[in-house]
Amino acid sequence: MTDYELKYTPGPTYAEMENPGKLPANVREAALRARANELDALNLFNITWRGPNLKPRYVVLPKALTRTKANIIVLTACSFPSGSHKVGPAYATMAEAEATGCVTHDMTIIGPSTGNFGIGTAYISRLKGFKSIVVMPEGMSAERYERIRKYGGDLILTPGSESDVILVLERVVEFKHDPTKLVLGQFELLPNYRFHRLTTGQAAIEAASEVGNGRIAAFVSAPGSAGTIAAADAVKEKYADAAVVAVEPKECSTLTNGGMGTHRIEGIGDKMVTLIHNVLNTDYVLAVHDDDTVKGLRVFHQAGAEGLSRICGAKIDGSRPKNDLCFNCEELADCGEFDLYRKCFGISSICNIMGAIRTAHYLGLGEDDNVVTIATDGFDRYPSVMADLERRTDGPIDDARLTQWYEEIFCRWDPKDFLDVRPKEQKERLFRMKEETWLRFEYSKEYLDRMKSQAFWDEEFAKIPAMDAAIAELRERSGMWPPPGV
């Protein structure tokens, strides 16, 4: 047994993250108990979209709020350990490296990020007993830095803000050739793609199966690393006619027209076509104003059920039965639905919801049609951003202001904000943009050309069973299965 195996902390396979019901019953029960202590390593087995009842966690927004005929279904990611689904790709990348013998116990884990993936990297490293360094822009929310430090991660801050991720990648290059470092490259490594195509894709499909006509008419996601939008491959595989919409800031309209501006939507709009973005399955790009997402978050967070009822001009029932949408958050166990929205929606969540609403209008979807999107993280990462909004706003943020913002943000849309990227020339443009970025970072033209075929992505996805077998074998070989504490 190697030194690394003696120090190994076991975690789930891909199949167990997609459906934790596949775990041994005693492991599953111990993991659920571990939610009371966020730093218990058994929480690795809580990396899943599913609650204790094994159903995906999601909400269907009231039509009085969305003013759409279609159903807007939102998968809620604040249920994940560390508070965002980005912990999943961080774990998957680490688990594949461990299972293939690429990790030694004295390594430092490097997480290039603009926030949530970095938080996930620090969290996974803490649970597995590694040092971590998160490389991210200096202009992100203070809460992101605080959470990374809470999990014991160190920070290297690069100039700029959300849209300056290229500088992060340039800083990380030097670590790739350092044998004492392991880079969890969310923008380029395929475990991110595999995690979302399997787990997020299946969660979206199953959530929609319980709503409306049971199908997915559209899947909407704002790309950052473009991991989450990999769920579109699963959606397209089941519903070939489903539309896939990538949302980006107008202020950084890279996918739309090569725009490279600075913006306020943390977690998306990174001035590039990421390596793991399968642009073959993106049908439309939608541009939204960045500050609308910040104002939209304020509308949800400040108004509550009663306020939203006034704003929407229709009674919205904010009550719901006992739920389990949030991780380690007992105060939400019996709360109203809109209290959940206040806790479980962050800025990119609002961006995705705006995109889903506008997509429903743009496609002319009917009453039984379903649009699925993602709430990436919760409000806990944005109090400082809300304080900045108050400083920038002329006058009080009262009911009149909230009503104005609601009408402007959620009830108005312009079809000119959509770009159809299905034509061949649009795909070729996006491929050229990908090449312009990634040839600089040691990827070959041959490798990039392979990504122009769906067969490449299907072959990468098909590696999951072998990876799962390797993860399971390492667990057994280490003598850490079942895990300590079970």
UniProtKB/TrEMBL annotation:
Cofactor(s), by name: pyridoxal 5'-phosphate
Pfam families found in the cross-reference section: PALP
Gene Ontology BP terms: alpha-amino acid metabolic process
Keyword terms: Pyridoxal phosphate
Domain Tryptophan synthase beta chain-like PALP: 81-298
Zinc-finger is among the record's keywords: no
Superkingdom per UniProt: Bacteria
PANTHER family according to UniProt: CYSTATHIONINE BETA-SYNTHASE
The protein's name in its UniProt record: Cysteine synthase
